[in-house]
């Protein structure tokens, strides 16, 4: 359904470093970066699987606070690793890895606040083996 999403951050370097580390367990790496010279003013970084710039952060006016983004994980172990990596990268805990039965019986997720206070989640919907 979605091809990509993006939002402005208050400190591009800090957020770049945070997301580079936090998204690695989900198989997301830095896919591309755009400079002000290329775009005429915008500067940003895209993360995703190889050759898929799916998750963008960049400069610009922040239009919201408390954004919520949920990223699909391939396993519960990836959710656990995302949570640990995000905390090690300076994120703040907003919900340890675990089942969230109020969403569905197999909804396994973890939540962290990024450096700007956005709620970033990793979720796996695969039943426990």
Automatic annotation (TrEMBL):
Q: Which domain of life is it from?
A: Bacteria
What is the protein name given in its UniProt record? VOC family protein
> Where do the coiled-coil regions begin and end?
none
Q: Report the residue ranges that make up the VOC domain in this protein.
A: 1-125
> Per the record, a Pfam family?
Glyoxalase
Q: Which InterPro entries match?
A: Glyas_Bleomycin-R_OHBP_Dase, Glyas_Fos-R_dOase_dom, VOC_core
Species per Swiss-Prot/TrEMBL record: Lysobacter gummosus
Which taxonomic lineage is given here?
Bacteria, Pseudomonadati, Pseudomonadota, Gammaproteobacteria, Lysobacterales
